[in-house]
Specification:
Layout (H helix, E strand, L loop, with lengths): L1 H30 L1 H57 L10 H24 L16 H5 L3 H4 L4 H22 L8 H13 L2 H6 L22
Length: 228
């Protein structure tokens, strides 16, 4: 017994001596200028490694808590499933059993409702866009039929340019008249009310541009002011 105790004591003293030697060696290494930067870098990496280990430990703890919660949830779901299975297998005899009409009744009613609703949807008419009549441009033949004393006043292109401007104004006016009041701003609404005030029975009967056709297509030539 005495020899074994002495051996243990010698081993312990030798370990202490070895540790002291290593410490002195590291101290001497730290004093060398060429190795100071390396030791600082190692120390910095050790600090980062320590922080990383702390984060990993925190994450492991959170995962363990989550695992415990999932186990509790699983046990609760299994318990509810067992209770539901028990209720299904032990239905009291005095309760009425579901009939076939109860099962198929709601589905039949739903099918009938869908059949009724479908024709109603088909009955809704689609709103067609309102067409605004525009005066057609004159043709070369119509222009040639104009009396010679009138041809010098306006050219063919000038007449069609005027017709296009009139059509543009008419389209702009009746787009405003056909527009819903809720979608109008203040300026457009003022124009809308002004156009309504300017409407008369004659203009409503004739439509946007009337049924006058081209001036040169009339049976009688236009009489300009000052002509006789």
């Amino acid at each position: 017994m005495v020899s074994s105790d002495l051996e243990d004591l010698c081993f312990h003293i030798n370990m202490k001596i070895s540790t002291i030697k290593k410490t002195l060696q590291l101290r001497n290494i730290g004093q060398e200028p060429s190795l100071k930067s390396m030791l600082c870098k190692i120390g910095h990496e050790m600090v980062l490694l320590h922080d990383l280990l702390n984060k990993m430990e925190t994450e492991v703890q959170q995962q363990e808590k989550l695992k415990d919660l999932l186990k509790e949830l699983q046990k609760s779901a299994e318990r509810d499933q067992n209770e539901a299975q028990h209720l299904r297998e032990n239905i009291p005899a005095h309760l009425p059993k579901p009939t076939q009409s109860c099962i198929t009744g709601p589905t039949v009613k739903c099918e009938e409702q869908t059949k009724v609703v479908e024709p109603e949807r088909a009955k809704k008419p689609t709103k067609e866009p309102r067409l605004i009549k525009e005066a057609p441009l004159i043709t070369a033949e119509e222009f040639e039929s104009v009396p010679a004393y009138m041809k010098g006043r306006l050219t063919y292109d000038q007449i069609n340019a005027v017709v296009q401007e009139v059509n543009k104004a008419v389209v702009g006016k009746y787009k405003i008249l056909h527009q819903p009041l809720k979608s109008m701003n203040a300026a457009v609404r003022n124009l809308y009310h002004r156009f309504l005030e300017e409407e008369t029975k004659d203009t409503k009967a004739l439509g946007p541009v009337g049924n006058l056709g081209h001036p040169c297509a009339r049976s009688q030539p236009l009489q300009l002011a000052g002509d006789s």
